[in-house]
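Section handout 9: paired folding examples.
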Amino acid sequence: MNNTDESLLNATIDTTNCDREPIHIPGLVQPYGFLLCLNEATMRVVQASGNTLELLGIPAEELLGQQLSRLLAPEPLAAIEQMLPSLTTTPRLLGAQLGNVVGQPFYKIILHRYDQLLWLEFEPVTEAPASTLDLPFLNEAMGKMLAATQVLQFCQDAADQVRAITGFDRVAIYRFGGDESGEVIAEAKHEELDPWLHLRYPASDIPKQARAMYLKNWLRFIPDAHYVPVRLVPTNNPATNRPPDMTYSVLRSVSPIHLQYLHNMGSAATMTISLIREGQLWGMITCHHRTPRLVSYELRDLCQFIGKTFSALIRTKEQHDEQDYQLRIRENQVRLLEHVSSNENFVEGLYRQQPTVMDVFDCGGAAICFDGEIILLGRTPTTAQVQDVLDWLQQHAPQQDVFHTNSYAQLNPAGISLRPTASGILAVSLAEAPGNYILWFRPEVIQTVTWAGQNQKVETLADGQLFLSPRQSFEAWKQTVESTSEVWKPLEIEAAKEIRLHISDVRLKVFNELQARAASLSKLNTELERSNDELDSFAYVASHDLKEPLRGIHNYSLFLLEDYADQLDADGVNKLQTLVRLSQRMENLIESLLQLSRVGRLDLVVEPTDMNELLAEVLDLISPRLEQTGTTVTVATPLPTVLCDQVRMREVFNNLLTNAMRYNDRPAKDVEVGVVLENMMSPKGEVNSTDFHVFYVRDNGIGIDPKHHENIFKIFKRLHSQEKYGGGTGAGLAIVKKMVEKHGGALWVQSTLGAGATFYFSLSKHL
């Protein structure tokens, strides 16, 4: 072993140099598989992991200089040669057996190209056979991710999905803060495990070079955290005289600090998926198991797909949260200022009714200081301490109408005693007279943090050096954030300014400020509409891009059935037929998603339309189906002429009539179409016949339980199994709903189980 080998195997990393640890060139691998590095020009092995003797019975030194034919039969060799022109840092998977090695212990080869080398990593077969693509699960997962509007629910759905795929004891979503510390904001876990939810970790727990690698390599996997690393033979690439860059290697050995960290956490196996927003590391999906666990590459790849989809959507979800918070601030602010305007004494309007001035935005407490009186709300410093703050403001910020800090103690050493309640202060002056302020307070971050490592012990090595442990890293982090609160957001500061302006001249500015607020709400609504348009665009692009690989899965499955059915047993043929059926099902779902996104993207072509003629065209189109199912359609009343998009209205009637036929198990199926001429009640209130036409489609079918009346309009929501009532994707009513809403109307149902259903939809008369 040369000096480089010794340094890589025996180097000790402590708290002073962990940020400089060269984790991308360890020269070591995890021993659950083995690694070969090939010269791209000669296609001969230049480096091999030292465990080939144990796994294959062939010393690594014997493999050096050899071609892949030493291990592989011609068929997998041809497959590798075919991959080479398009091979990049993105891993590719090849299923193969080591045809030229007795025992044939491996069948998965993971290939990528990087650092002037061709990398082949051989993974063992997991105990359970590799799962086929679970299209219904993937569809449900995508549907949940698209539907979630709040970040926390979005994260919880992702954690649940990854745990369902992998079976890890715990799957947690870890989000980074502005200071690069992190917090667990969602988790799915085994019932026996203690929760990690809301636990916080300092930035030093994930060194800078690890974060840099997480941006390049989306997934890291350690099936056994107690492994003994195996060195490369030789450690240095002969062409470069240095260890190869293993950034994209699946088997890359991790830092001994990280392994010690996992031991401290009681984790015997782990998988981590990067969550990247706009090129920055937003957080991670981190998985842990109490015993070693080898998850197949296929399932890990599916989890990585979920992580990348999560990353593409997270900014939109954050915008929803931000807009919700901004709307809440605006709504509370409007109500507060109404109290101020309606009270003869504006000070009473700030605290006597809900919401109070403390409720406008997130804070621990507030103080109203006016004409020598101090009124305290929530968790605040004492009256005497608040007076000290007022005196300090008069001395150090006398000309500032708005003052804010998230570390008062850094500006005023006397503020140390206030940090449990007032590390952060936001203040607005109310008048030219000194001492008239509204103050909002936030507590110190440390006071609100549940530290993940507070019961951990520091690990000391025999030579006196310290491993970086959770407890040590927390102490270092704590020193940087003591006496510091959460930062005041610009929109909170702006809200405080607006309160001040309103109070400064409450009677003269009421009208103008109400107009300003209305404009602000309109802007927010416009932003929400834009956000929804972006979601529609994403659904369209994602669905369109999914069709091509899915079509490949479908076609290759058919090829296998046609060409190899006689070589498979009945079970194998059945599985291929299932794959064909599921891929066709997924294609139908994707087509429905595309149709739904098109509805939101296309403009209406509105023209006067005789609905009697339009309905007659639809009935003529579906007449074979009506005759086949024994369905009679009756038009109860003449239908009006309305302003609508004729193509969309045909689709609406077609879908509703088709459903009326499909979900009906009676020998004589009766469907009635008509229009309601008077005002009527919908779930959202009265529908005025002066402003809306209300049409209905009534059947004598199976009916719908009232508890499902809202769910049936959700995308891909079915109340019955796929085999019952003629199949379908469950997207039809969602598409109809969107078409009707595009016309300014609404869609709803009245029904009870077993007693038929009546679907109503309104169309605006003033498009």
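Moving on to protein 2 of 2.
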Amino acid sequence: MGIFVGNFLRRSPIFNAMIITLLVVLGVVGLRSEGVLEGLELETYDWSLRLRPPVISDSPPITLVTISDQDIQVLGHWPISDEVLATALAGIQAYGPRVIGVDIYRDLEVPPGRQILNQVFKEHPEILMVKKFGKPEQGGIPAPPALQGTDRVGFSDMIVDSDGVVRRGLLFLDDGTTFSRSFPFLLAMKYLEPEGIKANSAEENPDWLQLGQQVLPPFESHDGSYVQADAQGYQILLNLNRKARTFPTLSLQAVLTGKIEPELVHDRIVLLGVVSEGVKDFFYTSQCGKFMRCPRVSGIELQGNIVAQLLQHARTDFAPIATFSDLQETGWLAFWVLGGGLVGLWVRGAWRFSVVVLFGLSTLGGFVVWAIANSLWIPWVSPAMGWVVNAMVVTALISKQEQKDRQVLMELFSRHVSPQVAEAVWEQREQFLENGRWRPQTLIVTTLFTDLEGFTGMAERIPPEQLWECLNTYMDTMVKIILDHGGLVDDYYGDMIKAGFGVLIREQTEEQIRDNVSAAVKCSIAMEEEMVRFNARWKQQGLGSIRMRVGLNTGPVMVGSLGSAERLKFTTIGDAVNIAARLESLQKDTWKTEEPNSVCRILLGETTQQYLGTHPWHLQEVGSVMLTGKTQSLAVFRLYPENGAQPVR
């Protein structure tokens, strides 16, 4: 029993497909965990962000004051002096901004004007400055001396992925001795302070940050498609939505000359920074309105976008980008890999396969874009790879199995059935094959045996080559007649032919059995007519004559394949088959002497005669005969051609 089950499972397409599906899932998970797919996943993440529908939202209360190459040319030097910076800040402050953020390092004095700048810092607490996190010897840049130790300085550090793209933003950093907040976070909190919105610990997890009603879970090293990413500090995935966010911009010269529209500054966040190509404060991001790779964005604009995102989180229901858990991601991958396996199992034809696979990839892509539009990052590359690979591998497996099955069928039925019957069997092979063998079944079959009389004498008179040609011609003709009548030839013994009618019907009805009996009888008559023509030709060639005996019997037989794994033979066995063989050889010596001029003798068993019904076949009852090896007599009938005996009613 165990061996049978093992063989079944090994040959079951569904079982094999499930094994392959499991291996593909494990393989893709392995590639994913090793970071092989991270680059491609991040690229598709960027594309999904670009393809999401634009979000209509209120314009963020942010204005940029930029220092361009033209401004530097007018001033005649870089960096701008403390005096120029103080003048610009005083000019902006005169219009009543809620917060001013300066994205320019000012750890060192740039004379003249340091005292004036310090006085501006002292008189206007709404001014916030930047630093670079870390100790100077480690590349850090400290805050302006006048603001060191205050809460008015935030770090401007950005996290740049290995491909040069900024996808995450830092809110806090802690090196074990120093805790610091980011510049965008300080700006957002300073702006929200009059509205009573503060940063709190989330109720669901005290280690998580909550702005207003929105919880911002920290980024983990394995979130999304990242693999062992640097998750130091408190990071969030950026959801910049740059399509919907455009900031009004003023030049430094406009500020210095007083050409400012008050509504662009009053009660807003004003960011002062550099956009000069010479300073090289530019970054690539994954989110923009372009179809191709996003153009670079200046540091001041990137800071403004991060501030805008934080404000939107705090004041609306705008959710941060969430990611699947490891278990959910594995389940998502397994779902698509399984789908690819089902495609491999059920879709046939290269064109259909291609259409279904492409449709699946498009559906997956559409779902990923829909999810990112709803702030959920779902991997695309790993499930897409699993979908395609599993579909191809399972298809290859099924094709190989089908080739084996077809080979088995062809070995069993080569030249034994008509092409139409062979194709029908192949289309329904699941019903017929089991563990590489013909599935055995008991069926009501009409068995036909034929044998030649006089063939031995012919063999004595003519050369072997001519005898071989005569026998092949006879066999080709008779087998074709059998096939044309829907029979299946399953054996030859010298000049003897064995065939069955009804062996390829899995679910039989009485009407089908009668049709098979009728086909067998018609086949016998056609063979007799052909035998007459054979004898006429052979006599003309001086070869003499040969006679044919036919035995027909209908009854239950076992249909299946016998033999070893190396060599199988399709056949039918049972008492009904033995009776047909006995009828073919019944009283052959008596027939030879009593009917020397008869070319063919067709004998039917009583069950065959009963299935024929009232059709006016030309039958004559031979009598009740005791067949060799039988304990009971059997009624036997002789079938004559059209002008023979009267029909039996």
